[in-house]
Amino acid sequence: DTGVSQNPRHKITKRGQNVTFRCDPISEHNRLYWYRQTLGQGPEFLTYFQNEAQLEKSRLLSDRFSAERPKGSFSTLEIQRTEQGDSAMYLCASSVRDRINEKLFFGSGTQLSVL
Amino acid sequence: KQEVTQIPAALSVPEGENLVLNCSFTDSAIYNLQWFRQDPGKGLTSLLLIQSSQREQTSGRLNASLDKSSGRSTLYIAASQPGDSATYLCAVLNAGNMLTFGGGTRLMVKP
Question: What is the pLDDT of residues A64-97, one digit of tens each?
Fold first, then answer.
């Protein structure tokens, strides 16, 4: 499968626990994005990597959130001390650098439920 | 700050109808505009991408138009089918390196 892969597909956790999600982008894509989507809403931008460098971070990304992309390949998104408001679908996307034609390919997402 | 709005929020039509989904954005300085499809509980599938210099793109029964100066795009679906039932999302890519999405239109095509 050459698409964007996200794991796990679903995560149920108790409030206050830490969770980590993984995203494996399409292999030749140097850009990687994290988005968050709540029910009935469009996805909201969280952060963006070009290779291993984290270039943009949304104000939605509080201190409890951290994202990494070591070696410019896969990426992880960690949420510490989860809150019920963190419940959402977390989507990862990747693309190649070509500003005009930049087309994002999305994974199937990780659905987080914080109890 | 870029804002994207989609109208209507939900739409229910009988099979075979032609339909139009609308998208508007506030900042016309965009690189491109994409239309996505999302099935319940799933990720997004890109349908069409229109560059800022283009006016429209077509793929099968889908046609998307872009009027950058007025900040509008439409997605036209011809001869709708029950399999077209999904949420359709419009998103614009601007200089901030982020794709800004609208809230989506939930489409139901009834057999």
Answer: 999 999 988 999 999 999 999 999 999 999 987 6
**What value, to the nearest 5°, has the Cα angle with vertex B92 and ends B90 and B93?**
145
Question: Are B98 and A48 in contact (CB < 8 Å)?
Answer: yes
Interchain CB contact of A7 with B (< 8 Å): no
pLDDT digits (tens, 9 = 90+) for B23-42: 999 999 998 999 999 998 88
CA distances from B76 to B40, B65, B92 (A): 21, 8, 18
Task: Kindly list the distances between the CA atom of residue A58 and the CA atoms of A55, A114, B6, B79, in Å, as whole numbers in the listed order.
Answer: 10, 22, 22, 40
Residue type for position B28: S
Across the interface, which of B32, B97, B101 has its CB nearest the CB of A56?
A: B97
